[in-house]
Amino acid sequence: MPEVGTQVLAGGLKSGEGLDEVVLREVAAETGLLTATVVREIAVEDKPYPDRGQPRRTSFFFLQAPAETPIRGTTRTSSAGTSRRLTLLHST
Fold first, then answer.
1. What average pLDDT score do residues 69-83 get?
2. CA distance 8 to 75
3. Domain parsing of the chain, residue ranges
4. Between these two residues, 14 and 78, which has the higher pLDDT value?
5. DSSP strand E in the chain: where?
6. Where does 1-92 have alpha helices with state H?
7. Which of 23, 6, 37 is nearest to 84 (CA)?
8. How far apart are CA 28 and CA 5, in angstroms?
């Protein structure tokens, strides 16, 4: 398998869902990691969708997991249909 470098996970906020909840849901869905915890939000970027020009807010979070936790990596491109997009950085 070729080296792919840093992978960024992304997902959309569902109605009634808090940011911490969506972060952990997306990490679990895309990596299988169930033991992560949110340490803090590290950045927020307000920038329109490039193809539609509609408003978009992207939030970046710092997470931690126990050192011995196995992580399965996946690569997926995703585009949220909502006005808020959540992006997660995952590295091992």
1. 46
2. 8
3. 7-90
4. 14
5. 7-12, 37-46, 57-64, 84-90
6. 19-31
7. 23
8. 20
The three-point CA angle 56-61-66 to 5° equals 150
d(CA 8, CA 88): 6
pLDDT in tens, 30-67: 877 888 899 999 999 999 989 999 998 888 898 888 87
d(CA 12, CA 10): 7
Taking the C-alpha atoms of residue 26 and residue 33, their distance in angstroms, rounded to an integer, is 10
pLDDT of residue 71: 53
53 contacts: CB under 8 Å, gap ≥ 6: none
